[in-house]
């Protein structure tokens, strides 16, 4: 885990935002995440988290020492993670709601893939819900360009959450 996400508020407008502050991590991995986020932000897809700004500045919080850190400011998804709605013990989601949410996630993924990006860590905790319960795909930290490092379109690094991984990851075969 390379960063922490904080809820922030614009003092003048009172609008809420999420701010990911990178605590540690390889600089090239952080640069890659920011690059990918800039690509998917251009899509203006309502089912992909919207990026407001990114940069490197002196950041001070009550939890972190005051140092120059990379950050990403994005829209705040006020209703939390999709995981929380799926895991309601007694109710879960209705079939109708689940189909609608799934359809919206697919619309977001379709645009992500058309832009040449592979998410590689799509799980319930990386889909946030906005104030209207629309899903927002987020956390592009393990994303990469579909063309791969050598341009062949074949990927062979095995990343992501195992419980959500495709069979190729378990078998350690190129995908």
Describe this structure in words.
This protein has 175 residues and is α+β, with helices and mostly antiparallel strands. The chain has four helices and eight strands, in the order ββαββααββββα. It has helices at 27-41, 82-86, 95-114, 167-171, and strands at 3-9, 16-22, 51-59, 67-75, 117-118, 127-129, 135-137, 144-145. The strands form three sheets. The chain has a four-stranded antiparallel beta sheet, with helices on one face. Strand 1 (3-9) and strand 2 (16-22) form a beta hairpin.
Q: What gyration radius follows from the Cα positions, in whole Å?
A: 17 Å
How do the strands line up in the largest sheet? 1-2-4-3
Poorly predicted regions are none
Q: Kindly state the number of beta strands.
A: 8
Order of helices and strands: EEHEEHHEEEEH
Q: What is the makeup of the main sheet?
A: 4 strands, antiparallel
Arithmetic mean pLDDT: 89
User: What fraction of the residues are assigned to beta strands by DSSP?
Assistant: 15-25%
In whole angstroms, how far apart are the ends?
24 Å
Determine the structural class based on helices, strands and strand pairing. alpha+beta
Which structural traits does this protein have?
4-stranded antiparallel β-sheet; 4 helices; alpha+beta; two-stranded antiparallel sheet; 8 strands; 175 residues
Fold topology:
Layout: E1 3-9, E2 16-22, H1 27-41, E3 51-59, E4 67-75, H2 82-86, H3 95-114, E5 117-118, E6 127-129, E7 135-137, E8 144-145, H4 167-171
Antiparallel strand pairs: 1-2, 2-4, 3-4, 5-8, 6-7
């Amino acid at each position: 885990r390379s960063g922490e996400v904080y809820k922030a508020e614009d003092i003048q407008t009172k609008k809420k935002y999420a701010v990911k502050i990178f605590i540690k991590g390889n600089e090239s991995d952080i640069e890659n995440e920011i690059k990918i986020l800039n690509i998917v932000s251009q899509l203006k897809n309502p089912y992909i988290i919207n990026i407001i700004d990114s940069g490197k500045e002196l950041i001070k919080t009550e939890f972190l020492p005051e140092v120059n850190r990379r950050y990403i400011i994005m829209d705040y998804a006020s209703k939390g993670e999709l995981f929380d709605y799926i895991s309601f013990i007694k109710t879960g989601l209705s079939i109708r709601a689940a189909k609608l949410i799934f359809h919206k996630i697919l619309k977001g993924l379709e645009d992500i893939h058309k832009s040449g990006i592979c998410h590689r860590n799509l799980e319930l905790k990386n889909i946030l819900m906005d104030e209207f319960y629309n899903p927002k795909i987020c956390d592009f930290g393990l994303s990469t360009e579909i063309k791969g490092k050598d341009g062949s379109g074949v990927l062979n690094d095995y990343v992501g959450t195992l419980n959500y991984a495709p069979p190729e990851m378990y078998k350690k075969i190129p995908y």
